[in-house]
Amino acid sequence: MTYVVLNQVLAIFLLTAFGFVLKKINLLNDGFTKSSSDLIVYVTLPAMIISSMDREFSKDIAATSLQVFFTGAIMYGFTILLAFLLVRFRKFEETQRGVYMYMVIFGNVGYLGYPIMNVLYGEMGVFYSAVFNIWFNVLTWTIGVSIMARGRLNFRRILINPGLLSTLFGLFIFLTPLRLPTLVKSVLDSVGSMTTPLAMFLVGAFLAEAHLKDFVAEIDLYLASILKLIVAPALVYLVMSYTDLPTIVKVLPVVMAGMPSGVNTAIFARMFDKDYKLAAQGVVLSTALSMISLPVLILVVVK
Predict the structure, then answer these.
(1) What is the DSSP string of 208-257?
(2) Residue 123 — φ and ψ, nearest 5°?
(3) Hey, which end of the chain has fewer CB within 10 Å, N or C?
(4) CA pseudo-torsion sign 230, 97, 142, 192
């Protein structure tokens, strides 16, 4: 089992390396990052989520979904605590404080989280990830905006975003006797299957655009990355190991806790006039380091 999992995870990161090379030799142009991000967020990922939830209602799956949802509170509780400890014991400028906090709290649970859980557990991995990520869709537009913009909340974005809407629609299908027509299901399967290669190409292109010399001396970026990639999943793993929950319920929050800092860190920093350059450097550094930490983490938690 371990050997199979390792091969599957390494295949994902080989796609990242492929995207990196394609960007370096200019086969992926400058518009790829923007266009592929929109395609994933608005098309392929919602398709994958909805398709994974088009299944007959099961009390066991519903019960497990509730367990998965509540483990999200544990994970985000730890990441929020670590973020506040970081800014409490390290002195940052006003334009950097929110960036570091967001970097530690919110991981790349979309571009990397869904593909990895899909590789580990198939459609059920995507299904439970969608339920788990309801937390991200709500918290990023509440706590996330608050720490970046001093309380300028956007309630419209909380309720109307592709991730949350596709999850709610998928849950509606799961909880009712309704089923997608065979043709629609087939199309969604095909479109959703594009998510993993597109997302990995995007991460590879993102890494290829970075200039490592710009932040190699930023010690605090390494500290934030260690908190995000090692400390957070270790704390969640410690708690989960003392429970009798199903394996996937214990694995999912640990894997999600170990995701590198999300791309939204840079997007929000630009949106709210924070240190965008620092945010982009943090995302790239933690993503690069996750190429080492994530395979190790997965080997530890997946039996």
Answers:
(1) HT--GGGTTT-HHHHHHHHIIIIIHHHHHHHHHTTS---HHHHHHHHHHH
(2) -60, -35
(3) N
(4) negative
